[in-house]
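Cross-check.
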Amino acid sequence: MKNFFSKLVILVIALTIGVTTQASAATSVAYKDADKSGKVLTELRLSFEDSIDAGNLELIDLSYDDYSAAIKKTERAIGKVSGKTNRRALLEKYVTPAKIARERVIYEVSQLRLLHIILGLQSSNQFTEAEAAFQKLERLKKRAVEIKEAGGYEQLPEEVALTLDYYEETVVEIFESYKNGDQLKLLINLLSTYGYLNSSSPNEYFILGANPEVENGFWLGYQSPTYGDDVFMATLKSFDGTKATFEYDLSWDDSDEIRTGEIFFENGVITLHYLDFEGNDVAVEFTLY
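Predicted model, tokenized:
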């Protein structure tokens, strides 16, 4: 009997120590760090979910990598917490909902990024590589449908699909222009895709993309912090995949002084050359990707 009571006391002490250990873990530095990281992740998740609800795929893409890094950071912090029960509770509270939000758009972000890669390959005249990447896109889209149906994920706003459709339609149009040998249409599509391009020039030279009202026309010009904007229209005359020529008129009167400029494409970079209204040679560089 004496041995029985001794063992009972030892058992009670052991259980008490166990409970005390878990309680101390909950108030430990590791637990506090994990909880703090989790609260930051929650704020990021709410913002991320706002972007999803708005259907803003571009914004989702911009925040995606930082959001994923925050998930990993919180997981690492939780991994340092003592007690399996404590870790599981923290994971369920912070990490699980964050991952669910990310998984809703993981395939859409992957598609958007792959479409940007394809556009970059097209802009540098690497159409064989672009075709291979496009086939990868088709497989990715098919896989996304399968995973979404199996996982029962919440439906995304229509705007997300519309964004992907826009980029894919542009990619297809560029492929068609290339296959049909319509190089001018190819270049116009590229300019339309990127739209507004900022250069690294101190004068902030830019291209404003295609002008749909003029055949093979596009807007060109610069912004000057001193003199304001000076934008004019140019017309593409030739394009062989790497070099384009265009005509433009910079005259401020009715003289219609037509000049010729050049555009060079190489490894995702546009280099633009033309003479300004004072006859100075202008060289501007734009990075596409």
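Residues 8-15 have pLDDT under 50 and may be disordered. The two ends are 82 Å apart (CA to CA). Passed to J.P. for a second look.
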